[in-house]
Structures are given as structure tokens and as C-alpha cells.
Write a structure and sequence with these properties.
Number of domains: 2
Shape: elongated
Strand content: under 5%
Number of helices: 3
Helix content: 55-70%
Largest sheet: none
Structural class: mainly alpha
Order of helices and strands: HHH
Distance between the termini: 55 Å
């Protein structure tokens, strides 16, 4: 629909584009194949750096060396490879 005023026509086109973009992205995503990897629990990564000192100590010096021995735990090196 044209209003006869270029300023409003541009605004309408921009608004329509903003509404149609998510629909287009959803359509494209349905055609895509997504692959994801779950690296498991990585106690030696430092992600718990906001935890208290006792928990950080346990994660770094107790849990991290045990990670290769426990089935669903991992190490940063194994997760990257």
C-alpha cells in the first residue's frame, strides 16, 4: 500500500522487513542440519571461578585429575579433540 509520501513508504517497507525476517530465518533453519556436541562435565575449565575457595580447590585438585577415569566427565583436551 502506497501512501503517496516517500517517508511513510520507506517506514512501511522497513516494518514489513522486520516482520518477515524471523519467518525467513525459521524457513531456512528447517532446511539446515544442526550438529551439537555435549563435552560432558569438565571440572578443570575454571567455569566455577565464582564458587567459594573450597569448591574451587576440590574442582581443580580432586575432580580434574579424576575426570579421565569417570565415564561422563571429560577434560578440555578431550572435549576439543
Amino acid at each position: 500500500m502506497r501512501s503517496g509520501l516517500p517517508r511513510f513508504d520507506a517506514s512501511n517497507a522497513e516494518h514489513n522487513a522486520a516482520l518477515l525476517e524471523p519467518i525467513q530465518r525459521i524457513a531456512e533453519a528447517r532446511e539446515a542440519t544442526l550438529a551439537q556436541i555435549e563435552p560432558g562435565f569438565n571440572p578443570g575449565t575454571g567455569l566455577g571461578r565464582d564458587a567459594n575457595a573450597a569448591v574451587r580447590f576440590l574442582a581443580k585438585y580432586v575432580a580434574a585429575p579424576l575426570a579421565p577415569l569417570i565415564k561422563y566427565w571429560s577434560t578440555p583436551k578431550r572435549a576439543a579433540g
